[in-house]
């Protein structure tokens, strides 16, 4: 698996590279700036990118913006974003691009090597890995979502696979139903969760986040 790392802290950048190489990942490039990162993605065509949220020159949202640009320029690129703490606005901005092949973890997870590697593999395999604390912060002001209790068992199965980042065709194959049936289940999920079509909200991402928050509350 070919990996590019974008992190402006040299110690963390090299530490991640050493860790991944020891786990047999092919770290093809490391970058300390968004420009270097985007150039590395263009040159090496990695399978997955690990990107720090805050990067030079302003250390605000350069990493997020670079990650979004990289995903747009290289469809299929898996991205695992690392942040020192929860950045609600940035998490929402990134998730607006879709949840497949996407991860958002707090940097403290890197120290829990197995958790970090599990998240990295899940993202690279097409799934979603959102830090539980990120989900908690995104839903900090909400109560448990009773709407999820209205979903049928099959609808919950579909939503669970959506949370793994699977598209409709992959969900149909996994559940051994038609793609048309999956589409109907998803429309029903949106209706039961009160997710009306808008230009500002990706209903699929919103449904996944609500599912993850419910799973966290029940854990």
TrEMBL record:
Q: Kindly list the GO molecular function terms attached to this UniProt entry.
A: DNA binding
Record keywords: DNA-binding, Phosphoprotein, Transcription, Transcription regulation
Q: Which PROSITE patterns match?
A: HTH_LUXR_2, RESPONSE_REGULATORY
Q: Which GO BP annotation is one of this protein's?
A: phosphorelay signal transduction system
Sorted alphabetically, which InterPro entries does this protein's record hold? CheY-like_superfamily, NreC/VraR/RcsB-like_REC, Sig_transdc_resp-reg_C-effctor, Sig_transdc_resp-reg_receiver, Tscrpt_reg_LuxR_C, WalR-like, WH-like_DNA-bd_sf
* UniProt-listed SMART domains: HTH_LUXR (SM00421), REC (SM00448)
At the top level, the lineage of the source is Bacteria
Known Pfam families for this protein?
GerE, Response_reg
Looking up SUPFAM superfamilies in the UniProt record yields: C-terminal effector domain of the bipartite response regulators, CheY-like
What name does this protein carry?
Answer: DNA-binding response regulator
Provenance organism: Streptomyces albus
Taxonomic lineage of the native organism: Bacteria, Bacillati, Actinomycetota, Actinomycetes, Kitasatosporales
């Amino acid at each position: 698996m070919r990996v590019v790392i974008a992190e402006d802290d040299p110690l963390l950048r090299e530490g991640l590279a050493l860790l991944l190489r020891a786990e047999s990942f092919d770290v093809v490039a490391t970058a300390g700036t968004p420009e270097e990162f985007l150039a590395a993605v263009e040159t090496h065509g990695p399978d997955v990118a690990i990107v720090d949220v805050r990067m030079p020159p302003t250390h605000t949202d350069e990493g997020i913006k670079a990650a979004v640009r990289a995903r747009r320029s290289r469809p299929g690129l898996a991205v695992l974003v690392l942040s020192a703490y929860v950045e609600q606005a940035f998490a929402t901005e990134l998730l607006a691009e879709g949840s497949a092949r996407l991860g958002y973890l707090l940097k403290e997870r890197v120290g829990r090597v197995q958790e970090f590697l599990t998240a990295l593999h899940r993202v690279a395999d097409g799934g979603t890995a959102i830090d539980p604390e990120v989900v908690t912060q995104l839903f900090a002001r909400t109560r448990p979502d009773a709407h999820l209790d209205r979903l049928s068992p099959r609808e919950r199965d579909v939503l669970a696979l959506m949370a793994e980042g699977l598209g409709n065709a992959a969900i149909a194959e996994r559940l051994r139903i038609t793609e048309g049936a999956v589409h109907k289940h998803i429309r029903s999920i949106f209706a039961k969760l009160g997710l009306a079509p808008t230009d500002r909200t990706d209903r699929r991402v919103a449904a996944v986040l609500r599912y993850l928050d419910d799973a966290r509350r029940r854990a």
